[in-house]
Amino acid sequence: MPVESVFDRESLIKKAAQDEKLELKKARAVIGLIEEGNTVPFIARYRKEMTGALDEVQIQSLINRWTYLQNLSGRKEEVIRLIEEQDKLTKELKAAILGAEKIQTVEDLYRPFKQKRRTKAAIAKEKGLMSFAEWLLAMPSSSVAAKAETYISDEKGIASAEEAIEGALHIIAEHAADEASIRQWIRDETLRNGKIHSAVKKEELDEKNIYEMYYSYEEPVARIVPHRVLALNRGEKEDILKVGIQTDTEKIVRYMSKKYKVNDNLQSGVYVQQALQDAFKRLIQPSVEREVRNELTEKAEDQAIHIFSENLRKLLLQPPLKGRVVLGVDPAYRTGCKLAIVDETGKMLYISVIYPHPPKSKRDEAEALVQQVMREYEVEIIAIGNGTASRETEQFIADIIKKNQQQTAYVIVNEAGASVYSASETAREEFPDLQVEERSAVSIARRLQDPLAELVKIDPKSVGVGQYQHDVSQKKLNESLSFVVETAVNQVGVNLNTASASLLQYVAGLNKTVANNIVKFREENGKFTNRSQVKKVPRLGLKTFEQCIGFLRIMDGKEPLDKTSIHPENYPEVKELLQSIGFTTSDTSTAKLTEALGKLAVEQAAEKTGLGILTMKDITDALQRPGRDPRDELPAPLLKTGVMRLEDVKPGMEMQGTVRNVVDFGAFVDIGVKEDGLVHISKMKKGFVKHPLDVTAVGDIVTVWIEGVDVKKGRVSLTMISPGE
After folding, report:
1. 8 A C-beta contact, residue 54 and residue 20
2. Tell me, what's the pLDDT at 464?
3. Is 71 exposed, middle or buried, given 0-12, 13-18 or 19+ CB atoms closer than 10 A?
4. Are the CB atoms for 43 and 51 separated by under 8 Å?
5. Which residues does residue 704 pair with via DSSP β-bridges, in sequence order?
6. Are 266 and 139 in contact (CB under 8 A)?
7. pLDDT digits (tens, 9 = 90+) for 252-273
8. pLDDT tens by residue, 86-123
C-alpha cells in the first residue's frame, strides 16, 4: 500500500473553520492572507472585507487551530509511513488514523507498532509463548497447567509450567495495554469519574502552611478548578505534597474483561483476568494518570495564561492622563521616597529623594521640599507607586494637600515591574546618569501619563497581574502576552515622531532591529514629515511598510491623512471622496466636514470609490476624529485627595475602588486602605458567574460595599451587590 499525503489544505481549512465556528470563506481568506506574510493586526484592521471584520482574537484563534491541524496531519502521515514500513498497515487501521482528531489518539493507535525496549512480553515471545497466549485468549475449557507443560524447554529457557504461564500472561497484558480503544476508554473514565487526591509528604517544608488545605484532600477530576490544579502541582514540585489519581479498578478490569470476552468460570478465563489486572495496574494506569494530569495542567495553564492576558490587556489600555505635569513618587522607608517630575510630554524635569518615614523620619524637611517643587513646576497631579510604604506615603501626600488646600489630586499607580524596568538596558540607555531607584520614579509618573507607552518597556511577566504565571509553560505565556501587547499597541496606534523603540517593536510588521533603525533615522534626519519617508529606514522593505504604516501616525506632518488610521493604499479614494463633497484633506476634523460625513450614505460612498462598506465606515470615522485614541473613551483613573485608615472602614459602607487584579476566585480592589479588598466571585453579582472576568477587569473603577473587616490580619471583604438587591 503506497504512502500517500494526508495533508489536504482545503480540507484542513474546512475543519479549522468548523472548529472555530467561522464561515469557510472567512477562514479561507485569513489563512491565505497569513500565508502571504500579512500580520494579524493588519488583517484585522485593513482587510475587513475579506475576513468579514474578524477581530484579532478570532484571527489568532483560527491560526492556532490551523497550525494544530497541520501538525496533526503531519503526524498522521508519519505514523502511516512507519507502520507501512513494517508491512502491518490495514485498511481499518489507516481509516482509524486518518479519522483521529487528536495527536494523542494517533499515538495510541501507533503504540503497538513502536519499537519497544526488551519488555517481559517481548522476552516471552522470543521463547515461543505467543501461541500459548493466543490459546488462553480463546477461552478453552481444558487444563491450563497441562497445556503449559508442553512449553517447558531447556533450549528456550522455560524451566516450568509456571514460567510458561507467567510469560503468556505478560504477552496478554502488553496486548491489552497497547489496545487503543481500551486506553481511550480508561482515559475517559478517569476524566469522568476519577478523583485527584493529595497527602502531605514533608510538612516541615511548608513553613507558612500555604498547602495546609491539601494535606488530606480529594476532589473529582471532572470538577477540579484550574487554580487548584496549579496549586497541587506546585506543592508536589516543592516536595511538600504527594499527588495522585484514584480510579475504580474493579470497574475498569470488568470493562477490559468484557472486551476480551473473558469467561471467569473457566480456568483460562481466571488467568486472562489476572493478566488484564496486571495490564491496568502496571502498564496502563501510570501512563493514563500522567496523561490525565498533563491534560488538567494544560487546561489550567491555558486558563492562567488567559487571565494574565486579559488583565494585561486592560492594564495596557488604561486611559492616559495626557497633557499634565506629573510628580512621580516611588515610596520606600530606609532608602527614602524617590521623586521625579515630568512635563506634559514625559520629559524629566526634576529628580530628588525625601525621607518622610522611619528610620530617618525627616518629615518636615520632606514636606517643605514637596511643596516647593509642586509650586515651582506647577505639578497638576501626583502618581504614587503602590509598593512598600505606599500607604504611609499616600497619607503624607494627602496631609500636604489638605494642609495647603491645594487643588492637586493623587493617583495610586500599579508599580509592578517598575524596578525591573529601572535596572534594564532600556532604562540605562534612556537615563544613563540616574540611579536605579530614580528611574523607577520617572516610570511611575509616566505610567499615569501614558500606561501603554511605559508598560511596553517591561517584560509583560513582570507586570504582576497574573495567577501562577511562574508555574505555566513559559513559551505559551510569552506568545500569549506578546500577542496581547501587539494587539493593544496597534489598536491605539503609535506617534512615529515620539515613540520609543520599545513601543515601535510591537507595531505590525516591525521587530526590535527595525524599531531601533526608525529611532536612529529620526535622530539623524529629524522628525518624519510624511509616511512615505518611512520607506527610507534601513531594513524596512515594501511588505513591512504595508503592514506597519497604517498604525504609525504623524501628528503635525505635511499630509493631514498621516495623522489618521487610514492606510496610504486608500489615500487616492479618500481624496476622490472628499473632492466629490467639496472638501480637501486639510478639512479633516473640522465641524463642516464632520457634518457632511454624518449625512453621507456610506454604501453610496463605498460604491463611488470602489472600496468596501466596512473600509469606508472606518475611513469616515477616521476623517471625523483623526488621531482618535480608543483609550480616551474609558473612565479616567480614580483621583484622590484624602486617605482612609483600615480602622475607619465599617461594614455596609459604600466605596469606589480600582480593580488591581482578577483571579479565578474573585477580584482584588484598591479602596484606598492599606490592603486591597477581595470581592469573591459569589459577591460579584446576583445569579451565577462563570468567571470574574465576565464581570470586571483590571483597571475598572467599581462601586463596592464593605462586607467585613479584620484589622489584625489586614483583610477586607467586599461585595459588588448593592445591599438593596
Report:
1. no
2. 64
3. exposed
4. yes
5. 655
6. yes
7. 999 999 999 999 999 999 999 9
8. 999 999 999 999 999 999 999 999 999 998 788 999 99
The low-confidence residues of the chain, meaning pLDDT below 70, are: 1-7, 464-467
User: Selecting from 2.60.120.10, 2.40.50.140, 1.25.40.10, 3.30.460.80, what CATH number does the domain 646-719 have?
Assistant: 2.40.50.140
- Hey, what CATH topology would domain 326-449 get? Nucleotidyltransferase; domain 5 (3.30.420)
Question: Rounded distance, CA 108 to CA 93, Å?
Answer: 12
Q: Is 255 helix (H, G, I), strand (E, B) or coil?
A: helix
Q: Quick one: 588 exposed, middle or buried, by C-beta within 10 A (0-12, 13-18, 19+)? A: buried
- What's the CA gap between 675 and 712, in Å, rounded? 12
Q: CA-to-CA distance for 315 and 698, rounded, in angstroms?
A: 6
For residue 475, the number of C-alpha atoms closer than 13 Å in the C-beta half-sphere is 1
* Fold agreement (120-305, 326-449): no
Cα-trace Rg, the chain: 33
Which grid coordinates are listed for 631? 483609550
pLDDT value, residue 2: 43
Task: Determine the Cα angle at 465 with ends 628 and 353, to 5°.
Answer: 85
Distance CA 28, CA 147 (A): 63
* Through-space distance between the first and last CA atoms of the chain, rounded to whole angstroms: 70
* Inter-residue contact 669 to 677 (CB < 8 Å): yes
Does residue 283 contact residue 177 with C-beta atoms inside 8 Å?
A: yes
Rounded CA separation 55/63 (Å): 12
And the C-alpha cell for 303? Answer: 486558563
Per-residue pLDDT, 79: 97
- CB 419, CB 440: distance < 8 Å: yes
| Cα(332)–Cα(351) distance, integer angstroms | 15
Cα separation values, 441 from 386, 396, 674, Å: 12, 17, 21
322-378 per-position pLDDT tens digit: 889 999 999 999 999 999 999 999 999 999 999 999 999 999 999 999 999 999 999
Q: Under CATH, what is the fold of the domain 120-305?
A: Tex N-terminal region-like (1.10.3500)
Tell me the angle at which helices 474-492 and 56-85 cross, rounded to the nearest 10 degrees: 150
Query: Buried b / exposed e across 534-551, counting CB within 10 Å, b at 16+?
Result: beebeebeeebbbbbbbb
In a 10 Å sphere around its CB, with 0-12 CB exposed, 13-18 middle and 19+ buried, how is residue 191 labelled? middle
In this structure, how many other beta carbons lie within 10 angstroms of the beta carbon of residue 612?
15
- Architecture of the structural domain at 9-113: Orthogonal Bundle (1.10)
Ranges of each domain in the chain: 9-113, 120-305, 326-449, 580-629, 646-719
CB 384 within 8 A of CB 390: yes
| CB 413 within 8 Å of CB 442 | no
Q: Are 392 and 329 in contact (CB under 8 A)?
A: no
Beta bridge partners of 657: 702
